[in-house]
Design a protein that fits this description.
heterotrimer; A mainly alpha; B alpha+beta; C alpha/beta; A: mainly alpha; flat; B: alpha+beta; Arc Repressor Mutant, subunit A; nine-stranded mixed beta sheet; three-stranded antiparallel beta sheet; 15 helices; 17 strands; about 40% helix
């Protein structure tokens, strides 16, 4: 399993992270190391094993369709890095 | 370059907002049109530490719809995260269903009463539940400044219904949308308001072009932003022509270009390329660890099936086969929605004449509903009162033209048909008096008698006119019949 | 003996008998924090005023004879990962430096309902990612037994404050060992409950299918008391299990008869510090002397625990931490800088994407970014099956190992860590070495079972050694009783670090 600097750069965009040259080298080194380690799972034959996504076998946690109070707008917006009286504000969303 | 014939291949992805009081994963309300960011909580704001809990009603409304679309309901379904960054998606992922959706493999039949296309069974790949995103409001100043984010809609339950690429014309796509909307209305699972976005449609379109070297397929384009039935039709028609032109120009076929997304611009009536993403989409779907699977029993599925009433296709057939209505009449009435069908059924039963009831509902009643832009629930004449009127027609007490006068008066009064007849001074003319009148008219108009005798039956119309002058209450049909009898017996 | 050296259960008795007020007790802890936390760095924030106000209110309530909660008047320290309404909750990250949640975590609600006094917020590795608390964006925490060493992590502050008598009770979280490992290294008791036993609502997620909140205390009895308050079904958490909560504190002193303990031979030998091995073996003998039967069992897939964990946890984390993008809350980079930077490097990246990338790279520390990268990679197209899906399957195998083991034994006994507390900075540049710290603890998280760490000795250098007991899902009651049997027969839990 090989992982190149270019791969890491692509993953960084997907993850919305950005590294300078040095950080990218370091990240690549560490990721290669870790991936080599975790690749030991490929030793195991898991052909007939059911994947286990949850720690416990529980199901049907369903809630009734009964409204509960929403937050006052001020509470919803109070942690926003940028906002106006009504909305969150973000840099322009282009092209859509 | 020479012209080649082509077929348009269309698959639709329809998003339906389900009619729940609360959101899919939290208990905030789902009302439309409230002030921005007044309908949020830690869960739908994607606050750190908050956790989703599935709305039971949304699940069962989804199942009801899927069953009505003839889908199979797997016993086990789970929730997955679709990861991407967008400011209207505060968690950075949309909770949706990936490999084990709540329903699969159904169909919806579509037909054209105007013979625009052959009847077609459009197969459904799947219908699955997912959460809606919020709204970004973009500054008009062309990319400058900020976008404003309103998260009221975030987390509203959506049922995504994905069809196979089974449609072959824009008219079929429009008919599919209309039939689907009608079905959803009968099921009472959605408001289906396209303007408010509670019913949204994306189309995957390409062409199969028959060239001299065989059939080629053009690259698939996804069209978004079609917010009315008309724009679905026009968007697809436009896109088909555009793809044909591009193919003639570039020769590019399916597989040679990535799937493109284009938006329908309703004001310019064109599709426009939406800015290419800066990377190819990789949604990294994986099972949502915060939500647990849903397991349903056969009994639960049966119970939901029982809730489903008679659906449009079955009703149309019943109105034709049991009530003797024409395909066209049945279609018109059924397509108006369940309330009008119920009105019709009540009227037909009370009036005792299915066809007459059909003609009146499809004609006068619908005309008023359309003119006044009201729903049948607000129509001032209930089925019982209208049935009395129809009975007066059946007994011959009223001719159709008089009946329309009575109908018009009944719209603004609460009186019974019989009372309105009296109020309007419409009296039934005594049979003997009518015959006497006709006798006099025939004797007075030898020329007309001659015309009729020589085969021109229409000439008798002039006698009807004269009879009405003598007595406005005469029934024209009766006058005609009696006069013809007298003349023929001469 | 000063009041803060007594156990929480003893303090509660004094509060109830009227010999002690909550204000006195709270003030005693505040004094201790004032005196020694400069050396330890366990607390990110001490909430002096609100703690004293709460204590006074509870004293008042007690005086009027009103019904009291189970922890009435006892101070509790909270790991800075549990949302508390209108109170800073940072998760050890710059990303949430100014974040004040608009709601309370269920566990915070439960503590308040139990009339606990919230002393303050304890330090942790950023987003609970780490085993040394060195990944906190704010400060390091020192091991009270040797302040040149780390306290373990990620609940390092939670363990250190208990072991240095700065709080009688403390709430931590455990995703791969984050309660048990620092408890072992700091010489206190820490319990990771069965997945689903304690509500995660309001716990800032690291890896949702592994995270679990649990108690830390100096004694098993106090741990039982706190767990009793934390546990219980919560309709706001779909993965919370609807099972009644046993009265742990009432049964904890009842020894178990016919106890069968499983020993995994591979836990010993190569890779483990001989002093740790000796302490754990001695503890096993204590159990034998108490009448327990020891059985040697196999856990064939335990060696794959770390690899499985370091796929699943980063995958979930990469998605859980996507919400920190500078849009709706948390850190956002300077917008003018974004514009300037885009102009300079001529990228066709939009300002929104660059804002995301800069905010996240500036707001998250290195370890968090590393795990986001790993998880993003392992879930991406072409790698999902080889990594994520494979790990989910091995996770099943590990769970099956446990299921088979619990057919034969009541509990599994073994070490918590292979080594005692290491020096500050020793492993910060070697992530893989740091990850291997969790060797003995991650499998319990993967399987969703319960585990407890309790003091079982000291190295020749005076560093605490932890003993781990693991039990089948929802067997916390037995786990606590078994732990108490050992504690009653030993005195390691009574020793105190010497801090000036």
């Amino acid at each position: 399993m090989s992982l190149t600097r270019q791969d890491v750069e692509k993953v960084a965009l997907l993850a919305r992270l950005k590294f300078d040259e040095d950080a990218l080298d370091k990240m690549t080194d560490h990721m290669v190391q870790i991936i080599q380690y975790v690749d030991k799972l490929s030793e195991l034959d898991t052909e007939d094993v059911q994947p286990m996504a949850h720690a416990l076998d529980i199901h049907n946690a369903l809630a009734d369709d009964e409204p509960r109070p929403s937050l006052p707008r001020e509470e919803a917006l109070k942690n926003a890095p940028k906002r106006d009286d009504e909305c969150f504000r973000v840099p322009a969303v282009l092209g859509e | 370059m020479s012209e080649f014939s082509y077929e348009i291949v269309i698959g639709l992805e329809v998003h339906v907002q389900l009619k729940t009081k609360t959101k899919l994963f939290c208990r905030c309300r789902t009302e439309f049109g409230n002030p921005p960011n007044t309908q949020t909580c830690p869960v739908c704001l994607g606050m750190p530490g908050s956790l989703p809990v599935m709305n039971k009603k949304a699940y069962f409304l989804g199942m009801r719809t899927a069953l009505a679309l003839n889908c199979g309901i797997p016993k086990f379904t789970k929730w997955d995260r679709k990861n991407y960054f967008y400011p209207d998606l505060p968690k950075g992922y949309q909770t949706s269903q990936f490999d084990l959706p709540m329903s699969e493999e159904g169909y919806l039949d579509i037909k054209s009463t105007k013979d625009e296309f052959e009847p077609r069974r459009v197969r459904i790949i799947r219908a699955h539940l997912e959460e809606d995103a919020g709204k970004s409001m973009h500054d008009e100043a062309a990319g400058k400044g900020d976008s404003r984010i309103d998260l009221n809609r975030t987390g509203t339950p959506l049922l995504e219904i994905v069809s196979y690429p089974d449609m072959r014309s824009a008219a079929e796509a429009k008919a599919y949308m209309q039939e689907l909307r009608l079905l959803l209305t009968y099921l009472d699972v959605s408001d289906c308001n396209m303007q408010e976005g509670s019913l949204r449609c994306d189309a995957n379109v390409n062409l199969h072009i028959t060239t001299d070297d065989g059939v080629i397929a053009t690259p698939i384009v996804e069209i978004k932003n079609m917010n009315s039935f008309r724009s679905v039709e026009r968007g697809i028609e436009y896109e088909a022509k555009r793809q044909y032109d591009v193919w003639q120009e570039t020769g590019k076929v399916l597989g040679e270009l990535p799937k493109q997304t284009r938006g329908w611009d309703d004001s310019a009536q064109v599709t426009r390329s939406q800015r290419e993403k800066e990377e190819s989409a990789d949604y990294r779907y994986f099972p949502c660890p915060d939500l647990v699977p849903v397991i349903v029993t056969d009994q639960q599925i049966d119970e939901v099936r029982q809730e489903i009433g008679e659906l449009p296709s079955a009703l149309r057939e019943r109105l034709q086969n049991e009530f003797g209505l024409t395909i066209y009449s049945a279609d018109v009435i059924v397509n108006q929605g369940l309330s009008l069908v119920e009105y019709y059924l009540e009227l037909a039963a009370a009036a005792g004449d299915n066809k007459l009831a059909g003609n009146w509902v499809q004609g006068e009643v619908l005309r008023i509903l359309n003119d006044q832009e009201i729903e049948i629930e607000d129509f001032p004449i209930d089925a019982g009162r209208l049935a009395e009127l129809l009975q007066l027609i059946q007994t011959g007490d009223l001719d159709s033209s008089k009946a329309k006068d009575v109908f018009a008066a009944m719209l603004t009064s609460e009186s019974s048909a019989a009372d309105v007849v009296k109020e309007l001074g419409i009296e039934k003319v005594d049979e003997g008096a009518l015959e006497a009148l006709c006798q006099v008219l025939v004797e007075r108009n030898q020329r007309i008698v001659d015309d009729v005798k020589s085969g021109n039956e229409k000439a008798v119309g002039a006698l009807i006119g004269q009879a009405k002058k003598e007595n406005p209450n005469v029934n024209p049909g009766q006058v005609r019949q009696i006069c013809l009898e007298i003349i023929n017996n001469l | 003996m000063s009041i803060i050296q007594k156990t929480a259960s003893e303090q509660l008795a004094l509060l109830n008998s009227g010999e002690l007020t909550s204000v006195e007790l709270t003030q005693a802890y505040l004094n201790q924090i004032e005196q020694i936390d400069g050396q330890v760095g366990a607390f990110l924030r001490v909430e002096t005023e609100s703690a004293l106000a709460q204590a006074a209110a509870i004293d008042q309530k007690r005086a009027t004879g009103a019904p009291l909660g189970k922890l009435a008047g006892l101070p509790v320290a909270i790991k800075d990962i549990l949302c508390t309404k209108d109170t800073p909750t940072t998760c050890g990250s710059r990303m949430l430096e100014n974040f004040e949640p608009p709601y309370n975590a269920t566990v915070v609600e439960k503590l308040l309902a139990a009339d606990a006094v919230i002393l303050g917020r304890t330090n942790m590795d950023e987003f609970a990612m780490g085993s040394s608390t060195e990944n906190s964006a704010y400060q390091t925490t020192q091991n009270p037994w040797d302040t040149t060493r780390i306290p373990g992590g990620s609940s390092g502050g939670a363990a250190a404050c208990v072991s240095a008598d700065m709080a009688p009770l403390s709430v931590g979280t455990d995703t791969g060992g984050s309660i048990r490992q620092p408890a072992a290294l700091c010489g206190c008791v820490g319990l990771k409950p069965t997945y689903g036993r304690v509500s995660r609502y309001g716990l800032i997620a690291f890896a949702s299918s592994l995270d679990q909140i649990g108690p830390l205390a100096r004694t098993v009895e106090d741990t039982a008391l706190l767990l009793e308050v934390l546990a219980g079904h919560d309709p706001l958490d779909s993965t919370s299990v609807n099972q009644p909560t046993p009265a742990y504190s009432e049964t904890v002193n009842q020894p178990l008869e016919n106890l069968t303990l499983g020993v995994v031979d591979r836990h010993f030998g190569e890779g483990i510090d001989p002093e740790i091995e000796a302490a754990v073996q001695a503890a096993i003998q204590v159990y034998e002397s108490l009448g327990a039967t020891i059985k040697h069992i196999e856990m064939p897939h335990a060696d794959y625990g770390i690899a499985t964990y370091y796929i699943i946890a980063p995958c979930e984390a990469s998605s859980n931490l996507a919400r920190y993008d500078g849009a709706h809350y948390g850190y956002r980079t300077d917008q003018a800088e974004v514009v300037a930077e885009l102009a300079e490097d001529g990228s066709d990246e939009g300002p929104l994407v660059r804002m995301y990338r800069k905010s996240r790279s500036e707001g998250f520390g290195e370890e968090v970014q590393r795990r986001i990268m790993l998880g993003t990679y392992a879930l991406s197209e072409g790698y999902y099956d080889a990594f994520y899906l494979k790990a989910l399957k091995v996770r099943r195998l590990i769970r099956q190992d446990y299921d088979a083991a619990f057919e034969q034994v009541d509990m599994i006994i073994g070490p918590v860590t292979a080594n005692p507390a290491f020096a500050q900075g020793e492993k910060t540049s070697d992530p893989m070495a740091m990850y291997l710290e969790d060797l003995y603890t991650v499998t319990a998280n993967l399987a969703g079972i319960a585990g407890i760490s309790l003091p079982c000795g000291f190295t020749s250098g005076g560093l605490p050694v932890g003993l781990q007991l693991q039990a089948a899902p929802f067997q916390e009651e037995k786990l606590l009783r078994a732990a108490q049997m050992y504690q009653a027969a030993t005195d390691f839990h009574t020793r105190r670090p010497e801090l000036s």
